[in-house]
Amino acid sequence: MQPPTPAPVSPFLRTAAAYAWRLLAVGTAVYAVFALLGRFHEIGVAIFLGLVITALLRPPADVAARVLPRPVAVALTLIGSVVLVLGLLALVGEAVAGERATLVREFRDGVDRIEQWLQRPPFRLNADALSDVQTRIGQFLSSHRSTLASEALSGASHLVEVFTTLALALFCSVFFIHSGDRQWAWLQDQSPSRMRDRLGIGGRAAWRTFTGYTHGIVLVAATNAILVGLALWLLGVPLALPLALLEFLAAFVPLIGSPVALAVAAVVALASEGPLVAGIVVALIVVIGQIEGHVLHPLVMSWAVRLHPLVVAISVIAGAIAAGVVGAVVAVPLVSVIWSVRTALRDTREAARE
């Protein structure tokens, strides 16, 4: 007696099973990569920052190397950049210190104005409720003083980690700027011969996209910071320079960072200058968001990063969920580099077939 013949498997089910195994394998690999990066995230962040510094400083270092020995050109470029950044931070610190007394007084008056504003229509909040909120905040700070102190000490340890990461990033950038091309050529030589051409094509595409994105986002951030600083200065909002610097840093998180920074500026304007100026700052958020989304990003970055805004938004949110602020900053350039490498390799294969 012959065994029964098994029923044939549906082609659709066979195809779905094949893709399911592939997706499981890819998901496992991605999880392993993120788990590894999670254990050594400081090193990953340092290398990323080193690449950013290299993308920004490699062109001026190449120009200086035409008249100077390359080690001297690299050293002068890095030292000059560090002095420039430290000078900007000192200027911001001096501005904050100079406006501290005025700012404290204006904030106290501003809080009183906000309370009076909330007591009038349309809010009509009870004055006792507002004073009770202040009392509860004071009680919370008093009862959690030890917790706040421990958090401050934890913040100090995190500050040490930040400086260590920055030092490692600067150390990496020295070698990347000086001889990054030779390091990549050595890596290609160590790979199997059948992969060398693909590594060369993918590496050139990745670096072209990464440098284009870095230059573009710095230009967009600088433009936003200048617009915000001028607007806040004209409106008489205190701490215009530090808020402009905050806008510059926040612009490195596409679509999300700039509105958050301008919301902080709106709160400062509300406390110091009142609802009218705060309303103007909110309108400024809308205007600068439109300029950034419809003028700066398409004009400056379209040649380097060809991603749909929906892909950018999903990448930023996914990066933030996976790795916090660092993930939100890294997500878009990472996705852009992966996409550009895929496109370059695909175009090469199609050209070879023709």
Could you explain how this protein is built, in words?
The protein has 354 residues and is mostly helical. The chain is 87% helix and 0% strand. The longest helix is centred in the middle third of the chain and has 46 residues, at 145-190.
List keywords for this structure.
354 residues, mainly alpha, 2 domains, 0% strand
What is the element layout, followed by pairings?
Blueprint: H1 11-39, H2 41-64, H3 70-98, H4 100-119, H5 127-143, H6 145-190, H7 193-235, H8 240-250, H9 257-273, H10 275-301, H11 309-353
Helix pairs in contact: 1-2, 2-3, 2-6, 3-6, 4-9, 6-7, 7-8, 7-10, 7-11, 8-9, 9-10
Compute the CA-based radius of gyration: 26 Å
Tell me, briefly, the overall form: globular
Number of DSSP strands? 0
Low-confidence region ranges:
none
**Number of domains in the coordinates?**
2
Distance between the termini: 56 Å
Mean pLDDT: 76
Helix content: over 70%
Order of helices and strands: HHHHHHHHHHH
**Count of helical segments?**
11
Which class do the helix and strand fractions yield? mainly alpha
Q: What can be said about the biggest beta sheet?
A: none
Approximately what portion of the residues adopt beta-strand conformation? under 5%
Give a concise summary.
It contains 11 helices and no strands. By secondary structure, the protein is mainly alpha-helical.
